[in-house]
């Protein structure tokens, strides 16, 4: 098997509740070096934040997985679909047929009023960018991170792309991740909402339910300043 890209030591292995700007002492397992992190620019290059200025935002961050959370994509020309797109990948042309999860546009419109929106996908960038450009015409989603930003680990001989929220650049008391894959969220379970995988069913109402919950979470966050506490209150 090909070695996975970006073999970094996740900060969360060393300290799970890493806060932006907080002083932490640790040994860099790659270099053996003793490190102290006091500010984003002193973080070792293999641990740098994806968005070093994000902690200055006044809003909490809502990180959304894409495949099976917001959309259901099939390879080939499959009907019915909301989006059909053909992408050239090397010598190959690949056709994608995409069904959007019901209530997706309303969900994004509503959430953008409260949260900074980000896609955190383990898919490749070419496909992800092409798809986000098509379903987010209102450009509510301001940030995107892809497979190369995930932390690759091996579980039971299978590669798993974990989404390490401590790499993003926002404090963990201000980040929520929504994902259908329990293995992707394993580093920061307290920050995460596991959503039922979207199979393309037009009667699916998970995003409607999620919108109601995330509105309550936001109201509680405004009072207590901590999304982890707010998520515990509104299960
Ligand atoms: Mg997914």
UniProtKB/TrEMBL annotation:
Keywords: Mitochondrion, Protein transport, Transit peptide, Translocation, Transport. InterPro entries: FCP1_dom, HAD-like_sf, HAD_sf, TIM50. It is found in: Mitochondrion inner membrane. It is a single-pass membrane protein. Component of the TIM23 complex. Essential component of the TIM23 complex, a complex that mediates the translocation of transit peptide-containing proteins across the mitochondrial inner membrane. This is Mitochondrial import inner membrane translocase subunit TIM50. It comes from Hexamita inflata. The lineage of its organism: Eukaryota, Metamonada, Diplomonadida, Hexamitidae, Hexamitinae.
